[in-house]
Specification:
The protein is of the alpha+beta class and 407 residues long. It has 4 domains: 81 residues, no CATH class; 79 residues, PAS domain (Beta-Lactamase, 2-Layer Sandwich), CATH 3.30.450.20; 75 residues; 151 residues, Heat Shock Protein 90 (2-Layer Sandwich). It has 9 helices and 12 strands. The strands form 3 sheets. The chain has a 5-stranded antiparallel β-sheet. Strands 7-9-10-12-11 form a 5-stranded mixed β-sheet, with helices on one face. It catalyses: ATP + protein L-histidine = ADP + protein N-phospho-L-histidine. Keywords: ATP-binding, Kinase, Membrane, Nucleotide-binding, Transferase, Transmembrane, Transmembrane helix, Two-component regulatory system.
Amino acid sequence: MDYRRILLPLAGQGGVFVLGAFAWLAFTKGLYASALVCALGAITLATMGLTHNAFSFGRDLLKRSQPGATFTSELSRRRLQVLLDQTPSPLLLQPNNGQLIAVNRAARQLFDVSYALPVAARKALLGEATALGLAHMSGQIKWKGQTFAVHLAEMEEEDALSHLAVLTDISADVRAAEASALRDLLKVLNHELMNALTPVASMSKSALDLLGDDTPESRAQAAKALERVVARTEGLTDFINAYRALTRLPSPVIRPCGLGLWLDVLTESFEAQWADKGVRFELETDGTDLSLLMDEDQMWLGVSNLLNNGAQAALEKADARVRLRLKREGDVMVFEVEDSGKGIPTESADQVFMPFYSTKVTGTGVGLSLARQIVQGHGSALLLVPVQEVRPDPLGGACFRFQVRVG
């Protein structure tokens, strides 16, 4: 309690009263000069008291104006919240305390919360990136049957860094893309099956007709026709097996994997298959003493497919080479698989990832599609890099790039 605000006014009033009493007493005794001095003193004290009261009133008024400023700030905050609540895209905020806050109405309705997401919801949403937070959320997430594109932003607040995620519903686009991909797949399947079955039917009928002649020559021709039927049937079996491998790929089991040993196995496998065919393998890496977050078996299969495709393409030219380059960029390891072949024609660049599409006569068209599916399962994207963007020392053929998180 501020006693000065009480005692000072009382002392002033007491002084005015005493001086006024002395002035009256002096006036009654005929001491007019003394009475005048006491009267002036009383007036001075009274004036000072009024000034102090005015100052106090102004200070109190100023203090009272502060709640008004707070009210204005609160009003602005509420207006901003109303605007955010009208935003159709769910907004998630993660301050440095690790919470995951549903910022607007769309986010609260989507995650069925009033403020912050519970731990179970955070784990279900972020998956392997739970401990890392929004900054490491993948480009797409699925929640309650909907697919959302994730756009991230950083905000600095009092020496602390917060992350904001804007979720854009792309379910309709994904369904349209899936329907289009299914139509394309059915076209390819129809084309491949018809290409395989038509000659089988034709050669089988020819063999049957030749066997009806029952001559040594006709039987020999029938035997050759049946050999071709068997060869085509085996090719069709390989095609079906490739299709089954593509459609039955399980979800990856992502865990820390030592890079050095994984690369040793990959290198030995590649050289065992291609070294005697004249394909040189080149490995460039920033270091092998790292751990990557990946399903080592699936990633081995995916990278092996890329290397094998590169080896087949490199054999079309002299001095066949395939290069695997690993370069660390922050918390990810960038993989690049490059070959010294003729490259991929511009008109085929948009089709190379389509299942069963191949620019090679003997290709199944599954390798790149399977590799892309594996890479996508690890939260990345398999990209065909334009030749002019390959650095340094490009081999001149096709180059594919993706990234894996460092564990």
